[in-house]
Amino acid sequence: MTAKVLDGKATAATIKDELRTRVKALAERGITPGLGTVLVGADPGSQAYVDGKHRDCAEVGIASIRRELPADATQEQVDAVVAELNADPACHGYIVQLPLPAHLDTQRVLESIDPDKDADGLHPVNLGRLVLGYDGPLPCTPRGVVELLRRYDVPLRGANVAVVGRGNTVGRPLGLLLTRRSENATVTLCHTGTLDLAAHTRAADVVVVAAGVPGLLTSDMINPDAVVVDVGITRVIGSDGKGRYTGDVDPEVAQTAAAVVPMPGGVGPMTRAMLLTNVVERAER
Ligand SMILES: Nc1nc(=O)c2c([nH]1)NC[C@@H]1CN(c3ccc(C(=O)N[C@@H](CCC(=O)O)C(=O)O)cc3)C=[N+]21
């Protein structure tokens, strides 16, 4: 049986339509939501991601505030840009594109972002708010996963969810989101060091893989009713010598699972839609 495909690209397009309406309502109150991006250096991958975010903004009517610094920018220069965006009332939320060049102190930069302007939802204050169940901007990729499952009516209440990967941007905050009272899933947070990983994934109704290990989840590791979400994105060089991106889920799983969230076309577009959502929500307050 071929798995049903949960289409992140189409769902993100629907969310953008909804945001356009909310942005119009804000305009009637004289408010234009603004998203800032800070890009340090000229990594082609990072540049492409940032370009994509500004294209998304244009589509829904969010103003773009773009700050670019050279690869050899000093810590003081980066700090100054962060301070400027913290103080700019036209900027409702912003992100500092990661990774930063190695000579910069990433933790210091991220901690100096005003938590109420943290469009990524990854500031320590916001991760703390998530732990405590307080309101705050939510991390985009975990929120995108939950939103996609919700819109496809995948039951989470009481469901067993295996999350493979405990990173700070996806796996760990996703465990926190799914175990909130509003979602009420039962989460097993696994990682590549988990003993008998397959025993945990086989027992799960939903398996989310965010380990950054291509092909980690194979079809013998899931039950046939499972919904599988591929969050992995790893650049590999194909046999033709060309670079491409691959997920953490073996392609065979698309034949054996009940439903899959593919990569590409799944969590990536949802992440971008949640970034826009965070900015519109900030502007609405
Ligand atoms: N401060 C910060 N925030 C981020 O959110 C952040 C970051 N730094 N650094 C890099 C990662 C990576 N990331 C992606 C987002 C969307 C796709 C995406 O939409 N991918 C497409 C395929 C590629 C494309 O078409 O562009 C897809 O999955 O269909 C991919 C990767 C956000 N990141």
TrEMBL record:
Homodimer. This is Bifunctional protein FolD. It holds the Pfam family THF_DHG_CYH_C. The gene is folD. Keywords: Amino-acid biosynthesis, Histidine biosynthesis, Hydrolase, Methionine biosynthesis, Multifunctional enzyme, NADP, One-carbon metabolism, Oxidoreductase, Purine biosynthesis. GO terms for molecular function: methenyltetrahydrofolate cyclohydrolase activity; methylenetetrahydrofolate dehydrogenase (NADP+) activity. It comes from the Bacteria. It catalyses: (6R)-5,10-methenyltetrahydrofolate + H2O = (6R)-10-formyltetrahydrofolate + H(+); (6R)-5,10-methylene-5,6,7,8-tetrahydrofolate + NADP(+) = (6R)-5,10-methenyltetrahydrofolate + NADPH. The keyword Amino-acid biosynthesis applies. Belongs to the tetrahydrofolate dehydrogenase/cyclohydrolase family. Residues 139-284 form the Tetrahydrofolate dehydrogenase/cyclohydrolase NAD(P)-binding domain. Catalyzes the oxidation of 5,10-methylenetetrahydrofolate to 5,10-methenyltetrahydrofolate and then the hydrolysis of 5,10-methenyltetrahydrofolate to 10-formyltetrahydrofolate. Its EC number is 1.5.1.5, 3.5.4.9. NCBIfam families: PRK14193.1. One of its GO terms (cellular component) is cytosol. The keyword Oxidoreductase applies. One of its GO terms (biological process) is methionine biosynthetic process. Pathway: One-carbon metabolism; tetrahydrofolate interconversion. InterPro entries: Aminoacid_DH-like_N_sf, NAD(P)-bd_dom_sf, THF_DH/CycHdrlase, THF_DH/CycHdrlase_cat_dom, THF_DH/CycHdrlase_NAD-bd_dom. NADP(+) binds at G165, R166, G167, I233.
